[in-house]
Amino acid sequence: MTELGHVVFYVRDLQRSLQFYRDIVGLEVQGRIFGDRAALLSGGRTHHELLLIQVGEAPGPLEGRRIGLYHVGWKIGEGLDALKRVRARIAELGYGIDGVSDHTVSQSLYLRDPDGNEVELFVDNPAVDWRSDKSWMTAPVKPLDLPDD
User: Fold this and answer.
1) What is the 3-state secondary structure (H, E, C) of 97-148?
2) Could you tell me which residue, 1 or 15, shows the higher pLDDT?
3) pLDDT of 77-99, one tens digit each?
4) Distances in Å between the alpha carbon of 113 and those of 21, 52, 59, 94?
5) pLDDT the model gives residue 2
6) Which one of 28, 51, 129, 147 has the lowest number of neighbouring Cβ atoms within 10 Å?
7) Do 77 and 126 reside in the same domain of the chain?
């Protein structure tokens, strides 16, 4: 295996989820399938990195300690300015941020999509060469200082 191909989420309301993944994450709708009950989205790397399938009302993701998906991380650009821009867009569109973290190798914002799936939006730290320096793996997760300039 050389790369993760795509993620598939069942969603309650396709339109609401499309708005989130388009307007917050920055993915583009590539097309609709399954009688307009599903949509393929891409960040431009491949034909689709995300498939959303509408199932209507259903129980949401489990909370707390559990087996299964924890979150999906999306690289949203380069540098902290990109993270600040997406933070402003999140606030403008009325979504909340659950947390912000400095992972040494990357800096992240965490939030929930309309169905409660945790989403990480991150930028890599260009000062860390993760291929040759593995010290970031044991570095503690730190609070992220992301001031409004």
Assistant:
1) CCEEEECCCEEEEEEECCCCCEEEEEEECCCCCCCCCCHHHHCCCEECCCCC
2) 15
3) 999 999 999 999 999 999 999 99
4) 8, 12, 14, 12
5) 85
6) 147
7) yes
Cβ neighbours for 109, distance < 8 A, ≥ 6 positions apart: 83, 86, 87, 90, 97, 99, 100, 120, 121, 122
64 belongs to a structural domain = no
Specify burial of residue 146 (Cβ count, 10 A radius: 0-12, 13-18, 19+).
middle
Angstrom distance (rounded) from CA 81 to CA 87: 10
Tokens of 17: 């989820």
Mean pLDDT across 39-53: 96
- 120 with 144, same domain: the answer is yes
The pTM (predicted TM-score) of the whole model is 0.94
| Residue 1 predicted with pLDDT over 80 | no
Do residue 77 and residue 147 come from a single domain? Answer: yes
Query: Rounded to an integer, what distance in angstroms lies between the CA atom of residue 114 and that of residue 54?
Result: 12
For residues 53 and 81, state if they share a domain.
Answer: no
Q: Which domain holds residue 76?
A: 71-149
